[in-house]
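look at this:
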Amino acid sequence: MKAELPPTRSYRGLSQDERRAERRARLIAAAIAVYGERGYHQATVKAVCEAAGLTERYFYESFANSEALLIDSFNAVTWSVLAVITQAAKEAGRARTARSRAMLHAYFAALQREPQSARVFLVEIRGVSRAVDQAFDTALRAIGKEVARIVAPPGAVEDELLQAGVVGGVIHIALRWIEDGYQPEIESVVDTALKLGTVLASNSRARR
C-alpha cells in the first residue's frame, strides 16, 4: 500500500504549484518587457528578476538558463498572437480572402499594439543558438499549418514548403514595417501581405 503524500501547503489561498506557476508567468512577462526594451543580449537574469519583483533563486526554479526563458517567452508571444489571428478568422466568415485579410490585419495590429512582444517574436529570437533556432522553426511550422488549415484549399494544406514561404514572407514584411516606424498605414501593409497570403489560399497553387 502506497504511503499518502502530505497535502500541499497553501499560501494566500494558492498551492505551491500555483505559486510556482504564477512566478514563472511573472518572469516570462518581465522577460518580454526587458528583451523588448534592451534586447536579449543586453538583458541579464538579474534585470529580468528585478522587473518581475523576484530573486534569482526563483528564476532557476523555473528555467535552466536565459535561453530557456527566451524560448518560453517567444512561445508565449507566438501562441498569444496565433490565438488572436485565428479568432479574427473565425469572426470573418467562410470566404478565404476575407479570412486571410482578417488574420493579417489582426497580426499587424498586434505587432503595432505590443511593440515589445513584437521584438521578441521577430527580432530577439534570431541567431541566439541552435536550440532557439529550432524553437523558432517549430513555431513557424505550427503557424503555417494552422493558417493553411483556415485559409487554404485541401491540396495546399499539406504543402509545407509553400506554408514556410508565405509565413516567412509575411514576417519579413512585418520586420520592414517595424523598421520603418510602422509606416505605411496598417491597411496598406495588409494589402501588400495579402498579395502573398492569397498564394496559399489560391486553388491554382494547390497540389493536385
Observations:
- The beta strands are 10-11, 14-15.
- The two ends are 60 Å apart (CA to CA).
- Residues 5 and 198 are 57 Å apart (CA to CA).
- The longest strand covers residues 10-11.
